[in-house]
Amino acid sequence: MGWELDESIRSMVQYRYFNLLESMSALGVFDVVYCRNVLIYFDQPTKSDVLSRIRNQMSEDGVLYLGGAETVLGICEDFKPVPGQRGMYGIVSNVAQRAVG
Fold first, then answer.
1. Is 47 exposed, middle or buried (0-12, 13-18, 19+ CB in 10 A)?
2. DSSP strands (E only) in the chain
3. What is the mean pLDDT of the chain?
4. Which residues of 73-95 are buried (b: 16+ CB within 10 A; e: fewer)?
5. Rounded to whole angstroms, how far apart are CA atoms 55 and 35?
6. Cα separation of 23 and 20, whole Å?
7. pLDDT one-digit tens code per residue, 26-75
8. What is the number of alpha carbons within 13 Å of residue 54 lying toward its C-beta?
9. What CATH number has the domain bearing residue 67?
């Protein structure tokens, strides 16, 4: 049997279709963003633009999860890999703190 979140938590989650090339300003602020296996379909300038706009919608202690074939390295300076966590990226100013704490 797998894990299941309590209904009070599940009710806070919204699923919707969204075009990453459109404005994200109406979406609010995110603590966690899962953008897995999407960026691989974009060219480098578009990846950079999407990652920068995602960062603008994230809280200061936010976390970004990318797919195994994706990275921010050489594309975006807003995120850095969280040491020891594959596919997990933190906001640049918070990565060192996350590795310690």
1. buried
2. 30-35, 58-66, 79-81, 88-91
3. 89
4. eebbebbbbbeeeebbbbbeebb
5. 12
6. 8
7. 999 999 999 999 999 999 999 999 999 999 999 999 999 999 999 999 99
8. 30
9. 3.40.50.150
In a domain, 10, yes or no: no
Q: Which two tokens stand for residue 41?
A: 């379909």
Instruction: Tell me the per-residue pLDDT of 40-53, one tens digit each, with 9 for 90 and over.
Output: 999 999 999 999 99
Q: Quick check: is 7 in a domain?
A: no
For the chain, percent of residues with pLDDT exceeding 90: 74
Domain presence at residue 47:
yes
Is the pLDDT at 1 greater than 90, yes or no?
no
Asked if residue 5 belongs to a domain, the reply is no
Residue 99, token pair as written in the block: 């590795």
Q: Which residue is listed with tokens 């200061």?
A: 60
The pair of three-digit structure tokens given for residue 2, joined into one six-digit string: 């797998």
Number of domains in the chain: 1
**Whole domain around residue 86: which residue ranges?**
27-100
pLDDT at site 13: 83
